Amino acid sequence: MKTPLEGLRILELGHFVAAPFCTRLLADLGADVIKVEPRQGDPVRQWGDMVDGHSLWWSVHGRNKRCVTLDLKSEKGRALVLRLVARCDAVVENFRPGHLDKLGLGAEVMRGVRPGLIITHISGYGQDGPYRDRAAFGVIGEAIGGLRYLTNHPPGTSDLPPVRVGVSIGDSISGIYAAFGLMAALWQRDRVGGDDQARTVDAALTESVLSLMEGVLPEYGALGKIRAPSGGGLATAAPSNAYPSRDGCWVLIGANSEPLFAKLAQVMGQPELADMPCYQGNKARVENVAALDALITQWTRTLDADELLARLGEADIPSSKAYTAADCAADPQYIARGMVRRVEDGWFGCEVLHPGIVPHVPEAPGRVRWTGPRIGAHNDEVYGGLLGLADSEIAALRAEGVI
């Protein structure tokens, strides 16, 4: 069976994280993504750990995409963009709002050569509103979306800054929403036979994060309550936290239902806990969570992580060690489902570990067709094969610094 998005062609006018993450998800499912980069390449090529000057992050970030170089500020470069647009179903971009218009590549211009083109914008605050023109990165989206306030220890327990999630979560979340919006627009367009109506997707980093904030807004609106940081636990259920083992690991235990808490109490050798009024029912356990977590911690510190997890597993209590990269790479479940893959990367002359493709489509599982390519790796293939430029024309464009 063909991959789910085979036959779909997308032009990426993106840089850094959000738009490239969006298109990588689509490319993994079979879409033909043509990524336009400046001649020096996407800045992310210089991020993260390097091997011989090549980014290991880029190996994943740019995979399954055809990468071409192009000077968007040149007249000939803009002409090439429009020729590419004419051959694409959608454009994904994450410049500041209005930037493409200044380059002469606004929505009307692009749709003039490709009626029905779906344009997906990813920006800090969206394409309109009073913050439209403000600078933003993912961390700012996380802050304004309410996430950074909550990723902290409970009030009064630490003077350190609120903890950052260890990846570019704001950018990635907006990329996921953008991919979802793009596919919804494509479905709407193509279900009626591919009409030429303009369809735009406007994904803001701030809004993408805020949309994940569960009951934060309704709780404030109805009760005036501002949800406070809760550290490693859940503010609404207990026990559910990370607990230290004897050998220095953190083990997460989720026993926040009556049957599970009774099992945990039994495994701890303290079955009477389940019958104590202060721990009967989730509401009581939440109100007394500090004392309960202290008891659980006292127990977990007596066991190494493997023994602790074995006992919890035998009792069928949701639990796991807080995984490191090494734990993820060795996990048999990930390996069985192809979520950790060894992929040959020519830049490094060896296999590189990649995360698998999400979502998993058993009937047509996607694959890593190639890793993040070199700058301009597909110039000849795209400009010559797709657009039909002669070798001499491509050589001239190179000499002029257009590509």
From TrEMBL:
Official protein name in the record: Succinyl-CoA--D-citramalate CoA-transferase
Gene3D superfamilies reported in the protein's UniProt record: Crotonobetainyl-coa:carnitine coa-transferase, domain 1, formyl-coa transferase, domain 3
Keywords carried by this UniProt record: Transferase
Organism: Acidocella aquatica
Biological classification of the source: Bacteria, Pseudomonadati, Pseudomonadota, Alphaproteobacteria, Acetobacterales
Range of residues in the leader sequence: none
Pfam families (UniProt xref): CoA_transf_3
Transmembrane segment boundaries: none
Matching SUPFAM superfamilies: CoA-transferase family III (CaiB/BaiF) (SSF89796)
